[in-house]
Amino acid sequence: MYKFIQQRILFLALASLFFGGCKQITHNVTVNAEITGAAGSKVTLEQLSASGISLIVDSTTVNSNNKFTLSCIVPEPGLYRIHFGAQKKYIIVSLEKGNVDVKADFNRIEQYTVEGSESSENIRTFFSGLRPYIGDINTLNVVIDSMKARGKDSMATIAANQRNEVHNKMTDYVKKFADSTPYEPNAIFAAHWLNFATEADFMEHLSKSLAKKFPNTKLTKDFGEYYNKMMANITKTAPVMGHVDVGSFAPEATFTDTSGKTFTLSSLKGKIVLIQFWAAWNKKSSDVNPSLVALYEKYKNKDFTIVSVSLDNKRADWIKGINDGKLSWLQSSDLKGMNSDLAHQFGVDAIPYSFLLDDNGKVIGRDVNADVVETMIKAILK
What we know:
Blueprint (H helix, E strand, L loop, with lengths): L1 H13 L12 E10 L5 E6 L7 E7 L5 E8 L3 E7 L4 E7 L2 E8 L7 E3 L2 H32 L3 H28 L3 H8 L8 H14 L4 H18 L18 E3 L5 E3 L7 E7 L4 H17 L4 E7 L4 H11 L4 E3 L8 H6 L6 E5 L5 E4 L3 H12 L1
Helix pairs in contact: 2-3, 3-4, 5-6
């Protein structure tokens, strides 16, 4: 998943976007820039393409006053980057027509300002909001690698959970921007920060939405073709992570208990089942356990049971967590931590997390607390 994040960051340099070409003369655009500390640098204006090619539409050298001008003829709104070649630094601009003024300090180029283009200011604002998420993810990646190198797997898993939470928040931020920006190039640019496989539903929604909002642009046509190609490639490969929705039947699963014996989810058919993903090292899991104990004691003789799936790495920690929490129901773990096969099967990447199944094995709740579970149990038992 987080190799994917790194790929999204690299795609700026690789120009892995998909935008229309400068083939039809429609509008003249001039970019006037002043970049303190950039005197003498070679600079190009490049149109970004999803095919992996960046098309240079103009080039120049920054003068002794740190100023330069670039221009392009564009047929419709599109996304471009100002590329300081040797230094591999970039400024993204969303161009349509007219004059655009850009200012920045070369050593803090990400803090650039832009005037004369509302669409360019819109994409700058998007980057400003995105940058803290990327920074947090990169920091947590360093922490995870450090903890793993020192053999502190539980600490690494805690950091991985935190990283997952940040990633989920970043995904929500990107989706909200892509769905709400009035500028088509910016929406498509944001979409490329999403994982097409895990966000397939949203990508389908966005593709249809853009087709309605911008029905006659080449950009819409090109993005639709790109979307279809990406989806076709995804369907040829197995999904990275399972996904279990409310209203669907839970997948058949095989659990391994504390004695090494296995049992299947189907063997519990006829019972209301709460599948609880947890770990002994996870404080949130420990905080949840007392309410689950009370729930289990109240309904264990009424065709209700719990299966706890531990994402611990060490058996001793797992067993101690069971005993400390006085968890007397079914237990399971493959001791693979967050790489647990069951976590993968159910699409779990953060804990605690739960699935409530009715007596036919249908999922009737996800990520539900004990109070909600009890309400649902009462409704079924009526």
